[in-house]
């Protein structure tokens, strides 16, 4: 028999349900989400934290929550946030299910981008109610994360009967639900990692190169440029492509590769890969002229062979 889900926190016509919130995993995400739920009127009561850094984070963001073990968190909370690394999540759920830690009617939320609700199947067999709520945001582990949740998209996967509860929780945290099918979760997460995680690497490399070129304040140079590039890309897609690759300036690209080999050899492979991807997209969009593309692609191929 399927347990009856609790009313969503802000269900129309219902008195808002105030939930006791627990967190298993005091990394950067869990305490911030629990703190946002506290602002909405819920009550963080317990959090598991092991390292000194995670304990300090828990004490700062959730001062009224008891720092304890995962079993006690589950015993005390109506809503439990499983905010552990993706690769840890399946084993954690299996282990806790084996010990009988989950309760019927308990809302169980994980924040993995990779997994949907199916990873919580062992808990569901014990009567828990599964929700996958992944905030599409980068976290710092500080109070600023709570503010950044305003308007943040959440990748949501949940059984049909739990969709109102999932949507209400996301809205209470200040976010906007984006429904993701169970089978599409890995692709969804890959897209975010490609855009956000790799962006940090690219920006860090660009900053280091500017410093080597003698620029005293690389962030002042990059800030307006990258802000405009991101805005243009989100508005116009491939039509926003600019620069020597999109123009077919093979000589300039050759000079870039030579300089990178001298000053930052570790950045060469990434430059070549991104330049080739940019050339392919520029060609497909009609921005890069075919007669210029041949020389450009020869330069990139030569750079890859060295």
From TrEMBL:
InterPro entries: 6-PGluconate_DH-like_C_sf, DUF2520, NAD(P)-bd_dom_sf, OxRdtase/DH_put_Rossmann_dom, TM1727-like_C_sf. It comes from the Bacteria. Residues 8-135 form the Putative oxidoreductase/dehydrogenase Rossmann-like domain. Pfam families: DUF2520, Rossmann-like. Residues 152-278 form the DUF2520 domain. This is Rossmann-like and DUF2520 domain-containing protein. It comes from Streptomyces polyrhachis.
């Amino acid at each position: 028999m399927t347990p009856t889900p609790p009313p969503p926190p802000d269900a129309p016509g219902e008195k808002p349900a105030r939930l006791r919130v627990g967190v298993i995993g005091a990394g950067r995400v869990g305490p911030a989400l629990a703190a946002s739920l506290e602002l909405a009127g819920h009550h963080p009561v317990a959090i598991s934290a092991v390292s000194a850094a995670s304990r300090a984070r828990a004490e700062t963001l959730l001062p009224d929550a008891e720092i304890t073990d995962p079993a006690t968190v589950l015993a005390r909370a109506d809503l439990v946030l499983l905010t552990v690394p993706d690769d840890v999540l399946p084993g954690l759920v299996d282990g806790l299910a084996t010990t009988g830690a989950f309760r019927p009617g308990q809302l169980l939320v994980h924040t993995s981008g990779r997994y949907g609700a199916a990873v919580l199947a062992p808990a569901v067999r014990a009567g828990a109610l599964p929700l996958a709520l992944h905030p599409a945001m980068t976290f710092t582990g500080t109070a600023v994360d709570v503010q950044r949740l305003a308007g943040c998209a959440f990748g949501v996967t949940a059984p049909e009967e739990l969709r109102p509860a999932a949507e209400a929780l996301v809205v209470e945290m200040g976010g906007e639900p984006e429904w993701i099918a169970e089978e599409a979760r890995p692709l969804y997460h890959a897209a975010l990692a490609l855009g956000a995680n790799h962006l940090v690497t690219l920006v860090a490399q660009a900053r280091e190169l500017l410093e080597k070129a003698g620029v005293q304040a690389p962030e002042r140079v990059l800030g307006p440029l990258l802000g405009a590039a991101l805005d243009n890309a989100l508005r116009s897609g491939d039509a926003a492509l600019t620069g020597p690759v999109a123009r077919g300036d093979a000589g300039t690209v050759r000079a870039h590769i030579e300089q990178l080999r001298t000053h930052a050899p570790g950045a060469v492979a990434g430059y070549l890969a991104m330049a080739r991807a940019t050339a392919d997209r520029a060609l497909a969009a009609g921005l890069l002229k075919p007669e210029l593309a041949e020389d450009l692609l020869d330069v990139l191929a030569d750079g890859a062979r060295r």
